[in-house]
User: Fold this.
Amino acid sequence: AKPGDPSSVWLLGQWRSELIRRQDWASNAQLEARFPDGSAGNRCALLLSVAEPERNTLWRQNALSLWLNEAKPPAHCRLVFDALNQLQPFTAQQIWQRFDLLLAEGVIEALPELAARLPQADAELARQYISYLSAPQSLTSAWPADARSRSVLSKGLMGLARKNTAQAEALFAGLGNTYAFPTEQSAALLSEIALWSMVNYEPGAEARFFAVPEALRSANLREWYMRYLFARNDDAKTLAGFSQLLPDQREETRWLYFQARVLERLQQDKAAGPLYRKAAQSASFHGWLAAERTNIAYTL
Assistant:
């Protein structure tokens, strides 16, 4: 096999997976000697190829690094982590570090196991965090005003915003300044509430959109604001809404076409013409629609 050939890369990957499935750690270690692979799954397999009496400090450091940095390791890595915990039980600080990793990566289903490993006081806080993530509600006890609590609150409320924007908005407002959300994190949460308000065409969607700081409104959020305006069927307001699109968005063929179409509906044909002609230069669906509106040849 030649390491650089695509077929060889695929074949080696399939063979490595088969050796791991068989738990043939020794053969996998021999394969590693010829064809190195830095994936988490292979690193776990190499650690498992080391006999128990030879699992020294370096082995424990490598295993711990995997545990602290791999949010979604393959199943056989569990054998490494269990062996590591027997040799060197995880500290509360290390467990919280992995908790933060899994929280950031959205691996919520693995958090209860970590909570069970914590000392009693920490475990109770972790269980409160997990409960909030599954069903956000008003806090009955004060949490530490730290980055972890803010992450839990933000994750929980973002999930709730998809289901009930009004409740998410009320719970966020109820937190006040207690947890001192950074501007970016606060804006991300407000954006999620505004987004799902507009996706569902709720009456308060526009106010929620403008509650997000202008500089922190994403291109996707701005696009959904335009969709929301179109649904309201108010051409004058829709025309004004084009100004909130980002400069690059306004140059996209579809938005050139839609703006021209709104101008035409407002009987502003002279203003619509240049936008149609500019859009018609694009060999795309909306470019061809624009060409139809102006009776010019398609760009192919």
Q: What stands out?
A: The two ends are 45 Å apart (CA to CA). Residues 201 and 231 are 8 Å apart (CA to CA). Residues 183-199 form the longest helix (17 residues). The chain has 18 helices and no strands.
